[in-house]
Amino acid sequence: MLNAICLPLGMSRQDVVKMDELLKERFRLPKGGTLYRQGDAAEAVFGLRSGSIKTQIEDANGQVQITGFLLPGEVLGLDGLMNERQVSHAIALEDSEVCIIRLDEMDQLAPQLPSLQRQLRRLMSKEISRSHQLLLALGSLRSEQRLAAFLLNLSQRLQILGYSPYEFILRMSREEIGNFLGLTLETVSRLFSRFAREGLIRVQQREVHILDMSGLQTLSGTDCS
Amino acid sequence: MLNAICLPLGMSRQDVVKMDELLKERFRLPKGGTLYRQGDAAEAVFGLRSGSIKTQIEDANGQVQITGFLLPGEVLGLDGLMNERQVSHAIALEDSEVCIIRLDEMDQLAPQLPSLQRQLRRLMSKEISRSHQLLLALGSLRSEQRLAAFLLNLSQRLQILGYSPYEFILRMSREEIGNFLGLTLETVSRLFSRFAREGLIRVQQREVHILDMSGLQTLSGTDCS
DNA sequence: CGTTTGCTTGACCTACCTCAACTAGCGTGG
DNA sequence: CCACGCTAGTTGAGGTAGGTCAAGCAAACG
Lengths: 225, 225
Fold this sequence. Notes:
Chains A, B: This is Helix-turn-helix domain-containing protein. Chains A, B: Pfam families: cNMP_binding, HTH_Crp_2. Chains A, B: GO terms for molecular function: DNA binding; DNA-binding transcription factor activity. 2 copies of one chain form a homodimer. Chain A is of the alpha+beta class. Chain A folds into 2 domains: 124 residues, Jelly Rolls, CATH 2.60.120.10; 82 residues, Winged helix-like DNA-binding domain superfamily/Winged helix DNA-binding domain (Arc Repressor Mutant, subunit A). Chain A is built from 7 helices and 11 strands. Chain A has a 4-stranded antiparallel sheet with strand order 1-8-3-6. A 4-stranded antiparallel sheet of chain A has the order 2-7-4-5. The interface between A and B is large, with 50 and 50 residues. The structure holds a DNA duplex.
């Protein structure tokens, strides 16, 4: 049941049993703790079981870009499989728990578990298209649209996890949101205030209430799909 | 020899022979032709053998974002493996030739060819970190840095293919470059003129000569790595 | 050889950034 | 428990990078 959180999709009963082998290894990560750093050896991917984690890359000048905020059930470390080196940092936004999926173990199980390979492929593909979506946002949406889309995305993912899509706690700071969306913290703050003033949301510190979901969708340009 | 272009890295001799099976299917694509469209069934990935291709996504409002310019030896369609549906368009920038790698065929070969799976994994991982890099560019670089980085990246990839890194023909319009980098065509044009004025490059229409590689590197912020 | 398409350049504008001051929580130690 | 300091967030004023609009030009194309 809980295993489903790690690599959830389309597996037979006995496959899941075999999977158990892979997922036996767990790891607790305190708030602010680093799961891995850019340059580390990458011999595993990680399934987030609880908590939340940000991933970020850093260029030669120390310029940082957050590439994702991960929620339980999501998988990280997929970008490190190219050269078995991590190319990003993964930092816990709150106390978190991950399971470790070692690649060599996975490859040993592969012949008996073709669905596992396909599953990993699907996850990687999803991450590719997710970051392409993000490119669209950074490349061509205006600030208000970016933040609206960000909130809606978060809301949706929390709903999938069984939480209310209408009220939630942001695990990240304004600065982190801004960095992620290619904006400054001031702009993010102003937008929160403005959205609240316009009755779209209610916000108090990191607690967000979505009052007008379809209003946000209209704003983000996501609704007419 | 030419097969190496399709899935090049780290394979034994006999593995390559088996690979041949997979790659027998070729396809010619005229300039402007569409290899696949968003929504198409995705049962294969494609290796670009010659020419160049752009990939782009389109949102509900028709907003387009180019996510990549592909050169020979590079693989596309990796973002469609999530739901066996293409999530992007692939359009030829010039007459091109692709080889087709069907996923079901690949999965059949998988038991005999574990390296193939690993190779695909590496390619997908590379695409993930490439788009994360791109996020960094769109999120936090200034226009001049983006264009400089773009030119350097192109130059590098062409050099790997055996072409001169100092002079090449852009296969894409100013508008396409602008869209890719999150800028307008006017800004791109102005930057080309400015780079030329400053002696960094010589540019005449789509023909680019890089005169001061390290100058470009300094500008892009890539040099001090 | 005219038409179309892509590129350049200029003038102006605005969305977002920068800088700065102020405020609210929140943890810590006296 | 309060006072203090610290960090995160808010808000304002003003500046600027890059967008928009518009005109002109050069290649490419039928």
